[in-house]
Write a structure and sequence with these properties.
The complex is a heterodimer of chains A (about 120) and B (about 110). Chain A has about 120 residues and is mostly beta strands. Chain A has strands spanning about 5, 10-15, 20-25, 30-40, 40-50, 55, 65-70, 75-80, 85-95, 105, 110-115. Chain B has strands spanning about 5, 10-15, 20, 25, 35-40, 45-50, 60, 65-70, 75-80, 90-95, 100, 105-110. In chain B, a hairpin with a 6-residue loop joins strand 5 and strand 6 (about 45-50). The termini of chain B are far apart. The chains are: A mainly beta (about 120), B mainly beta (about 110).
Amino acid sequence: KAGVTQTPRYLIKTRGQQVTLSCSPISGHRSVSWYQQTPGQGLQFLFEYFSETQRNKGNFPGRFSGRQFSNSRSEMNVSTLELGDSALYLCASSLDLAERTDTQYFGPGTRLTVL
Amino acid sequence: AQTVTQSQPEMSVQEAETVTLSCTYDTSENNYYLFWYKQPPSRQMILVIRQEAYKQQNATENRFSVNFQKAAKSFSLKISDSQLGDTAMYFCAFSRVNDMRFGAGTRLTVKP
């Protein structure tokens, strides 16, 4: 099976712009989670989607949003970019994160740089 | 809220030696999962090993094993016969229904 894919891999934006990142989960996986990774804050949970519904949300401002499509592919959007949004954004998929037997598989990430 | 603490920001080990990475967590739950993930430099995060809290037996995957102490809320990772390819950031993670928390990570360097 193909792994989790994320596009684009690298992105450079300027303050005030908005950005959309895409994640394609492993075939058959229905849960997609997003994380922000920075040197200072480490890995922080953004949100999790399952069957097109946001099931859990981390402590991030409303500028961060996401959605999931019927084929389980997910997008996250960041509006009004700030310098502090520069980070590696990781997507992870699992069959169903609500199932305790489940394991998340990570994509390679999208490195976003905000100038 | 669940928190995960990795008290060793950086560690190093000689090739072929054994190293142990520490992780403690805080939860009031009884059923949960614990994971160790590895993130090599500029490469994808991959699962190293996982442990179900209801199992007393420590998980083992080849050269990787854990010491799970549920009462102490401790979950350490032991890497035996360290190899240069083990150089990476290692993250301890706690998972419950719909929620997953990561520690800050330990940067492990394996020296030749």
